[in-house]
Design brief:
The chain is α+β, with helices and mostly antiparallel strands. The chain contains twelve helices and five strands. It has a five-stranded mixed beta sheet with strand order 1-2-3-5-4. It folds into three domains: about 180 residues, no CATH class; about 80 residues; about 140 residues, Heat Shock Protein 90 (2-Layer Sandwich), CATH 3.30.565. About 60% of the residues lie in helices and about 10% in strands.
Amino acid sequence: MRPSTLRPTAWLRSPRYPYVSGALLAVLAAVEVLHGRITSATVLATLPPVVVPLLWRRREPRTGLLVVPAALLNTLFRPEMLLTVAVAGVMGLYTLARHRVLHPALLLGAGIAGSLLVNAGHLAMGVYDLGGKAPALGADGSLSYFTESFVLAVGVVATVGVADAFRSREESRLAREAAQRELIAMERRHAAAAERAAIARELHDIVAHSVSVIAVQAETATYTTPDLSPAARDGFQQIAGSARSALAELRRLLTVLRADDTGADAEAAPVAPQPTLDSLDELLAAHRSAGGEVELRTEGTRPAVLPPSLELTAYRIVQEALTNARRHARGAKVTVWLGYDPSVLRLSVADDGPGPAPAAEPRAGGHGLSGMRERASLLGGRVSWGAAGPGGGFLIEAELPVRTAADRPVDTAKGGHG
């Protein structure tokens, strides 16, 4: 049995609870009838409507509209009130208030009125020993005849108040959970947008470098290449001009992204060289200097040329995986594996730490794993994570298509920004 099922609140929320409690009430009613040798046809006739509808009170709360009047009617003909009727009446009234079948004020008014009617009926039926005399209101001790209605009214007020308080608390809990879910969803959307912006900036640095090289080569070709025809010279100049225009447009587009993060103009932001797979040695050395243990394994032959965007994405995935290992599996050994193939780059990062936690995004203190997925998706690849094996540990795996990253245009619907 799971620990959560041992909590009283968990049992009360169980779908079996109404049937079990209703069955226990039915048994209690049978015991009281047999032990008290009750033969009154009216009492026996009103007892089933008091108990049986409670079996379906959660599925159909309006059954309380039958239970409570039947309980009051049974009490009218059985002044000493059976314990079954008292418990069932409270359960029926609680159900009506808990599910707001009627407004609490209306329930209170109807319950108190019913209590007064039962008390008045007992007085009219001569239940109290008055020596054959009718009670004289205003005489000494006359108020004691209405103690019954007072006690019943207090029970009604207490039951409705408790039920309404529980309902308010439940509504507050559900509202908090909904707000928490919305906050988490908003944070994830924000993290995804921030990650796409970071990817766009990094791709800008890569593309800007290549375009600037094209501009310089086209510009200098007119001076370093002898015997160029006027048409060829004009062609090189047009290429250089187009490259410079494309570079300026890239920087203008990036201004919006960088201004959101720093509030500064993108032109003033330094353009740093982006890391590649050759930078992995420095990354692993940094991990070791922080007290971590890491090993790099490779398989296959690395292609002579890999798209810069693919190398950057692979580097960032390994970087985030090592950060994740330091944060959640301090002291664990990490193994980084790279598998080279002409059409796809495969990589995995595994540690021998405690393994993933049972959460929607395991072992992610922020949104690093979502960022990995965004980067891989941009290249048409995929990222997955989970337990490294039966003995524990955490594993992150990625597949990044080489051909798609090099040849296929970026799908703007998936977050490409140029």
